[in-house]
Every structure is written in C-alpha cells, then in structure tokens.
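TL;DR need structure tokens for one chain.
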Amino acid sequence: MAERNLAGTRLGFGAIGGRLRPLALGTLTGVVAGMGEFMFLKEQFLPWVVTETWALALVAVAGAYTHFLAKDLAESITLSLVAMTVGLTVHVVAWIAPLWLLAYPPGARDLLLPKMVGEAIASGLPPYVITFYGSYFAALLLGGYLEG
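>> reply
TL;DR here they are.
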C-alpha cells in the first residue's frame, strides 16, 4: 500500500525537470533575443562589420528556436511567453543600465528613469514582438506542415 500511481500527475522526480526545462530554455532564448533587440536599436554599440540587420536576425532566430526546442505545443507556447518576457526585461535593463554604471547623482536617476524606461519600451516593443513572433509562428507553421 506504500506505492502510489503518479502517472497522471506532475508529482515525482521528473516534475522539477519538467518545469525547469521551459524556464531555462526560455530564459536562454530570451536573453539572446533581448540583447539582439537592444543592439538593433543602439547600432552605435555594434562592431563595424555587423549591421543592425544581423542584430535583428538574432531576435528572429531566437523566436524560431523557441518552437524547435520544445517537445510539444504546450511547451512551445510556454517557451515563447518566457522568452518574450525575459527578452523584453533584458532589453529594458540594458537600456537603463548606464544610469547605474555611470556617475549619475541619485536625483538625476530619479528624473531620467521613467523617461528611459518609456523610451525603451516604446521603441523596442513593436520591432521585438513583430520579429520574434513572426519567426515563431513561421517555425510553428513549418513544423506543423512537415509533421503532418
């Protein structure tokens, strides 16, 4: 009577790995996509041989990989949501990081922070969402076509 059937539940030793895998893969692809989006908008930080198109291609590749790295459709959706959230967070943090890395007084930080966060979200969200989910849905359609 000590044995229990855990086949239909998400309890047991595999539960941690089953929940950690989408979080880890989504975080990885989100960091790549977020830094690609930041470099796309701040092209002065790009090396001289790299254009902003290559930086935006990182966002597209990360969007496609979120589907190709998933085991099933439910995990693919979870991966895309985690990657989107992490990528946007990385983009905003990279945008406002100079407020703490450079010698700004606390009063200047308080004045500049809302403006810089607004600029980061307003300038980064449209190309990020279009590129990331455009390549994600293209990979989803291609994967569905090749499977069926």
